[in-house]
Backbone:
């Protein structure tokens, strides 16, 4: 689910809860989790290649669980931020 915030804000807080229920057992990345961004995808939904981030013009934060191998962590895995 996407949500656009208008008008744009200088400060934004995100609280995210995830409930992982059995039989969830994925090895590798399942792209679960959440994301928050601003001005990251501007040009044709591309990640603005050629536009260097200067700490103020764009940002992207992704959080997801990731488990590279079954022996490294129990499902759903470690936080991959």
Residues:
């Amino acid at each position: 689910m996407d949500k656009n915030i208008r008008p744009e804000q200088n400060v934004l807080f995100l609280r995210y809860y995830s409930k992982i229920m059995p039989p969830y057992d994925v090895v590798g990345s399942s792209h679960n989790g959440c994301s928050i961004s601003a001005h990251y995808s501007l040009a044709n939904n591309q990640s603005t290649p050629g536009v260097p981030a200067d700490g103020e013009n764009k940002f992207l934060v992704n959080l997801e669980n990731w488990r590279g191998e079954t022996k490294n962590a129990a499902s759903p895995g470690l936080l991959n931020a």
